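Hey, quick one: can you model this chain's 3D structure?
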Amino acid sequence: MGKYDRIELLLGDDFSKLQNANIILLGVGGVGSFCLDCLYRSGVKNITIVDFDTYDDSNQNRQMWSEMHEGEVKVEALKKHYPELTIIEKRIDEEWVWDFDFEPFDLVLDAIDDRNAKLALAQKCYKKLISSFGGAKRMDPTKIKVDDIWKSYGDKFGSKIQV
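Sure thing. Here's the predicted structure for all 163 residues.
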């Protein structure tokens, strides 16, 4: 049995699309680090991650690999576990979004906390963008919903984007 047999069975002919997709993941904290792990374990070969932050004691309960790399830059630490990654150590703000070339990427995954950068991403990359919003302090995973931002409610961070 091969490493990705079950995923291939699930996705059929679309597995090669997933495996060969060129994906950029913005932010590798609480949401982004788990997203990275799932993509990598699903056979995605071309993943670029962008983050500027370091691991510290306060995020060890919610970020992949953080307990092993306290004080290290996240993107550099993650490259040790996922060696095929392309890493960019950079703070993602509105200016960076407008200056960065997203054209080579098939999918832009947003797991950042900066409101203005999220708005810029939505304006610049809306056709290939998936954004995450408030998961902090949420207790019921069955309430997770994937939908249009205009249909969201009860999310303080998401409501700032809708304005």
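One thing worth noting: The CA atoms of residues 33 and 64 lie 5 Å apart.
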